[in-house]
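User: I'm new to structure prediction. If I give you an amino acid sequence, what do you actually give back? Let's try with this one:
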Amino acid sequence: MSVPILQISDVSCYYGAIRAINGVSLEVQRGEIVAIIGANGSGKSTLMKSVAGLIRPNSGGIKFEGAEISGVPANRIIYKGISYVPEGRRLFANLSVRENLELGAFSERDRRLVDERIEAAFELFPILKERERQLAQTMSGGEQQMCAIARGLMSDPKLLMLDELSLGLMPSLVEKVLESVVEINKKGVTVLLVEQMVQEALEIASRAYVIQVGRIVREGTADELLNSDEVRKAYMGM
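Assistant: Good question. You get back a string of structure tokens that encode the predicted 3D arrangement of the chain. For your 238 residues, that looks like this:
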């Protein structure tokens, strides 16, 4: 088997004396959509932040394309080909859609490529073209989420990490946003997805990991977890 694009090995992270994740290991192969599912406070976002360089693991290792990246600062992680769309969108509220997208391409100095990526974002999310000059704070939650994803794509990442896309969105918009994730993946971008709407996440993922109290407690194909009575009862209310 080829070297995983992302390999997390026995990673633990602490907030003071509190251990947020404990000996977590997982792999993401190039071209996959991999979901991480679990309850709020289970360590999902901490794990994503450790890959993004926002949190330095206390122990364990993180490799991207075979090279160790644990401890690499967040601004250097982007240059390596990893983009992180955080929970809550975190747009620049007083800047326009276009300005937010341009800031997402800070690592690219070729203006032609920046413009091409903006046009690709508008093709993926046509509503953003209509809102191009609109301030981010004046858009709906769904439009803001689309803008956040588009901004994450502006660095032309190899791995796109998406944290709680459905948070605060109506169910109809969740489906639309997740459909866009599939389209992004079809264009060759590997996706690591944290999502509270477990069934919807598993329906687009190829594989998934279940995390509880900072530990991976189960992994398998998306179909295996969708058909698991334990997962259905714990996370889908079935």
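You can read the tokens as a compact description of the fold. Here is one thing that stands out. Residues 116 and 154 are 10 Å apart (CA to CA).
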